[in-house]
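ugh ok fine here u go
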Amino acid sequence: MRRAIYLDYAATTPVDPHVARAMMRFLGTDGTFGNPASRTHRFGWQAEKAVENSRQEVAELIKAEPDEIIWTSGATESDNLAIKGVANAYADCGKHIVTSAIEHKAVLDSCRYLEGQGYEVTYIEPSAEGIVCPEEVESALRSDTILVSLMHVNNEIGTITDVKAIAAITRERNIPFHVDAAQSAARLKLDVQSMQADLLSLSGHKMYGPKGIGALYVRRNPRIRLEAQMHGGGHELGMRSGTLPTHQIAGMGEAARLIEERRESDGAKIDFLSKRLLSRLEKIEQLSINGKRTSCVSGIINVTIPSVESESLIMMLRGNIAISTGSACTSASVEPSHVLRALGMDVEAAHSSLRLSLGRFTTAEEIDYATEQISGAVDELRSISPNWLEHRKRIEA
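structure:
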């Protein structure tokens, strides 16, 4: 039986074997299993050293200082801490927040929660190609704006936001700027000094590290104030209490180191495979690509296939080819992708869209087989689609 093919790297990445081995050193009686907050014995000292080494690795990945890295349980918590933490800390300066309509649900739901607490949120509409324009951000700013929160790379269509241009606008007005970099950390070079981001969210499991661990970069100069959302011990400079999971942190640190080490080779491979995938998918009649390809990362490809219901296509693949209809965080919903709808796509087209995402362990053979299977499933579904049959009749008439 053929091994299943994984083309859903935007949902999660497999843990790199080097990362798994690094994590194992911090589990069990033979490992460094101590509590990093235990300051009275070597078990705790060793664990604390491992945590700080990983903090250094993650800081180097984004060109930050180690004391600007706050450990969290993942990008969702990082987004919540950044948005709610700033909102609470700066409430005396205003209650207006700016974000976009195509953000991750962790950002959108945090903003909607704050709306229920008396805050006002402006949701910028992207262009039809999925671009959030700096000019739109600037026009949305007000005297009472206390935060702008935008993702660097969109998790569904792969478009890149010009965060550097937006940061120049927010910095001039002394407005904190939060960047969700969960999808970009493994795909683009990150430099918080050049970007001028004030807060930046990272996720371990989107960069070949373990699930359950993430980080929030919090700028120290000029200092960004945050009100803690979790209490109970004052860990992480008082911003995020809780016993630190040494093995997961070690895994994220090793994952960050490997990204720096393999950036060029991974990037070249994924770029090559993305072009190979697109060249084969584009042979499907009337298929269209969502998102501005000249402003997209390699490895995240979203397509619409008319007269093919995406859920039906996925069922025909019988789980042997892992692709998705959108963000894994909203896959339980029968509603069409909020990202595609924000681009102006109608419900039917949104329900006919698929996301394919590639990564470090994808092979050319997998691309060729997957596209062959997808094309076959499309042909079979269209053969029983009244809309497609009518379309063919019109062409042949």
